[in-house]
Specification:
Number of helices: 15
Strand order of the largest sheet: 3-2-1-4-5-6
Oligomer: single chain
Shape: globular
Helix content: 25-40%
Order of helices and strands: EHEEHEHHEHEHEHHEHEHEHEHEHHH
Number of strands: 12
Amino acid sequence: MDEAVPLVVHIIYRLGIGGLENGLVNIINKMPKERYRHAIICLADATDFTQRIDRSDVVVHQLHKKPGQDWASFYKVYKLFKAWKPAVVHTRNLGAIEYQVCAWLARIPYRVHGEHGWDVFDPDGNNLKYQRLRRALGLIIHRFIPLSKHLQDYLQEKVKIPAAKITRICNGVDTNRFYPRDCDRAAPMHCDMLLSGKVVIGTVGRMHGVKDQLTLVRAYIHACQTYPGFAGVTRLWLIGDGPLRAEGAGLLTDAGLLDQAWMSGDRDDIPDILRCLDIFVLPSKAEGISNTILEAMATGLPVLATMVGGNPELISDGETGMLVEKENPEAMARVLAEWVADSDKRRRFGAAGLERIRQEFSIDNMVSRYQRVYDER
């Protein structure tokens, strides 16, 4: 690639399976090669998810940062900036924002920061230390990109970032990868479940605190124990890995329901897995704009999610899905029982969600908006 083409350096914590990472890969793959080159600095490491990058000219640099405040990592990033001479540095989320100081010291012409959702230690955005950090670094950041209206309001009202510095860009979804099933389903590889006549309830995401898959597990157990016939016709899929996986398995074991659940660990066939589901659930305690909700809607699934972050911007409550309060397994169980018993409602919600994706959440529109931000440099 011609070095005259400007370089964008993206800084993220880790390049693995996740909505933030998926959005980044989509931007790199879809943005015209003649407009921008791209490089990624992973503060921790990168996984096989790098294989999703279609371009051969993208550098992925793993920093293997030590836990906590690793001062040497700042010097390493500064040296990379001086060597690479990017036109734009784009950090994402709290874990990467401090490296904007390196970009400022290296005199990078244009500095962008994306807010995709809050940290597990600050799920409601009320941590004053984190607000002050964003406010201070806002003095050297040229453009903030929140993914949701909720995050935009947070930046303006709590962090006090001027509105002129904020451009909200919602995620887009690749409808060439995520689309409804059009034939009989077969269980994915390494899943031994018989799916004929079953309603498959599932979620996708890293199994850690803020994603709160344990609320879905508790909701499933409650529905099995409370609503006659529910256990016999349903199966639960928890797709992803992380520290909550063992705890979720323990809850299901204690309830005698582990045989009805598939806890797959990390997978690289998410579109195929979504096409096997009948109901998608996102039980998070906090969210920005969820890629997995968009992907589920593009697959034609009804979506049940918690009333947090940007979820109400994506789900028209009572039209494309339902919203319930976070950490409320009983409310979640009631909706699941209603949907399991009403296939027509599932189909109506799924069809309405798919239509909304087609009208409002184009991936090409998302990429062009990011390109316009980079063009401001």
